[in-house]
Each structure stands twice: as structure tokens, then as C-alpha cells.
Specification:
There is one protein chain. The chain has helices at residues 17-24, 42-49, 65-71, 90-95, 108-123, 126-135, 163-172, 189-192, 209-212, 236-245, 284-302, and strands spanning 7-11, 29-33, 54-57, 77-80, 99-101, 155-159, 179-184, 198-202, 217-219, 224-227, 250-253, 273-275, 310-311. With 313 residues, the chain is of the alpha/beta class. It has a 6-stranded mixed β-sheet with strand order 2-1-3-4-5-13, with helices on one face. The chain has a 4-stranded parallel β-sheet with strand order 8-7-6-9. The chain is elongated, with a radius of gyration of 23 Å. The two termini are 39 Å apart.
Length: 313
């Protein structure tokens, strides 16, 4: 009997256990992994992907023509453990007939939770308060010291009332938000009905005047500006000027451009700007779900089966 030829799979990073186990159980695959939590160097990626039938990658791995050339004709499937696909050379991938899997619809709750966390953190000036405790600035109770803003009777503007926008509104409603405004490519009356949200106009910028008069903005945002969407949505230089001048009271960002943000970036000098290192999906459950979906996409693609989440090219 002829030995069964195994399909080579290359994984560009250590991934959570559920995805790793799914790949290890695939008897028809030979799995090689870059055994580090840090991004794989380009030369190592070229070496690892050579001759591979499947590639499981992350958002930080730039899969361009050079990488595809290094992989060769065997490569049939690319599965990215991300919703974002900007790191993939899709035109080149489509030209070569390579299937692509990704991980949508599993980040909604965790991303919404973090957006609400950023909103509360910036509204109530929590980082400033924590720093005052640490540096000895807390001397006594003072009526006007570290006063922020509450959500009760506030107006919240949401740019994009998609799955995550709705999840944010659903979590904010019990805080006593008085009015929700949203923008988008078109009105979404069925989705908006749950929150009595009002359509403020077509997706900007420039944004409608009614949205600019709202209090907190959630992008995914003129007063508070928590951002959980892609960093390129925000002009960070303009944001710095608006925060420094007081036009915007505070901002919270989980996504920046570039990533990581240089430690000498002007935004990091501001007390009214909270920046997190892109941790919107960083819960154990969500990251395990992402890794399992990415593994299942890869295996299904290699076996010529429908992927659970395939990007249609």
C-alpha cells in the first residue's frame, strides 16, 4: 500500500489551544508552527511556507506576492485568524485560485465590551485618578477634583450600526442613555428600533451636525471618542489637536496607525487620551473561538469542503 501523502500546513504563530488541538488531530496534515508569541520574520515566513498546502496566519503577517511565490503551486488555502484582511494580497491570491478563510462574527461581544470600557474609562477619567493615587496627588476629597461625565441622560453617537454598533448600544442602554444617534451608508430602521436610535445621516466624514452635537461617540465612536474600529478611520494628528485644545474632551483608542504606536507619539503625552494595544478580542474564550474557526476553515479548504467562514473573492 502506498503511504498517504500528508498536506503541509504552516502556522505563523503560537495559537490558542482549541485551534492547535484541531490541527494536531488532522491525520491528513503535517503541521509546522513558528513557535513564538512574536511575529515571524519575513525570511522565516518564506522558508516555512515553501511547499505548504495551507497557511494559517495572523493580522500582522503580510501575505504578499513574495510570500505567495515562496509558497509555490501547492498552496491552496490561506486561513487568517482575524476579521481584517488588509494584510492579504487578495488580487494576487484570487489570481492563483487560493481560497481564503477568516473569522468574522465571533468578536462582537468582546469588542463591544471593550468599547464600553473605553467610554467609561475616558468619561470618568479613570487613568488620571489611578495616577493621582500612585503619585501622591490624592490629598483629600475635593468637590471639583477629577470630575468627569456620566452616561445618564446623555446622547451617544455610534458611527455604524452593524453587529458591533448594536452590541455597544445594547450594553449602554441600561446606563440611562437618553438618546442614540447613528450614521451609516443607509438607515437601518429594524436594527435601530431596539434603541429608538435616530439616523443622523450618511457615513462621513464630514459627519452630520446632529452627530457632532452628541456626547460620547463610538466608532464601531464632541466630547468623548472611544474607537474600536480600524485605525485609519481616525486622523490621529487632527485628533491630537482636538484633544489638546479641548474641542474633544477625551478619547480612547484600541486601534492605531501604525501598530504598535511609537512611544514618542504625541497622543501618548495627553492625560485625556487612553490607548490600548489592540485588545478588543482579547478574552480567553474569544481567542480560542477564533483559533478553532481559523483551523476549521483551513482544514475544510484543504479537503475541498465548504469552509465555516470563507471570504468570497
Amino acid at each position: 500500500m502506498r503511504p498517504v501523502r500528508l498536506m503541509k500546513v504552516f502556522v505563523t504563530r503560537r495559537i490558542p489551544a482549541e485551534g492547535r488541538v484541531a490541527l494536531a488531530r488532522a491525520a491528513d496534515c503535517e503541521v509546522e508552527q513558528w513557535d513564538s508569541d512574536e511575529p515571524i520574520p519575513a525570511k522565516e515566513l518564506e522558508r516555512g511556507v515553501a511547499g505548504a498546502h495551507g497557511l494559517l496566519c495572523l493580522l500582522s503577517d503580510h501575505v504578499d506576492k513574495r510570500i505567495l511565490d515562496a509558497a509555490g503551486a501547492n498552496l491552496k488555502v490561506i486561513s487568517t485568524m482575524s476579521v481584517g484582511i488588509d494584510h492579504l494580497a487578495l488580487d494576487e491570491i484570487k489570481k492563483r485560485g487560493i481560497r481564503v478563510g477568516y473569522t468574522p462574527d465571533v468578536l462582537t461581544d468582546t469588542t463591544a465590551e471593550l468599547a464600553v470600557s473605553l467610554l467609561l474609562t475616558t468619561c470618568r477619567r479613570l487613568p488620571e485618578a489611578i495616577e493621582e493615587v500612585k503619585n501622591g496627588g490624592w490629598t483629600s476629597w475635593k468637590p471639583l477634583w477629577l470630575c468627569g461625565y456620566g452616561l445618564t441622560q446623555s446622547t451617544v453617537g455610534i458611527i455604524g450600526l452593524g453587529r458591533i454598533g448594536q452590541a455597544i448600544a445594547r450594553r449602554l442602554k441600561p446606563f440611562g442613555v437618553q438618546r442614540f444617534l447613528y450614521t451609516g451608508r443607509q438607515p437601518r430602521p429594524e436594527e435601530a428600533a431596539e434603541f429608538q436610535a435616530e439616523f443622523a445621516g450618511i457615513l462621513g466624514p464630514p459627519y452630520p451636525a446632529s452627530l457632532e452635537r452628541s456626547h460620547p461617540h463610538c466608532c464601531h465612536l464632541e466630547i468623548f471618542f472611544p474607537v474600536g474600529c480600524w485605525g485609519d478611520v481616525v486622523n490621529q494628528d487632527d485628533l491630537y489637536q482636538a484633544l489638546a485644545s479641548g474641542k474633544i474632551a477625551a478619547a480612547g483608542l484600541d486601534v492605531t496607525s501604525p501598530e504598535p504606536l511609537p512611544t514618542n507619539h504625541p497622543l501618548l503625552t495627553l492625560k485625556n487620551c487612553v490607548i490600548l494595544p489592540h485588545i478588543g478580542s482579547a478574552t480567553h474564550r474569544t481567542r480560542n473561538t477564533m483559533s478553532l474557526l481559523a483551523a476549521n476553515n483551513l482544514l475544510a479548504g484543504l479537503r475541498g469542503e465548504p469552509m465555516p467562514s470563507e471570504l468570497k473573492l
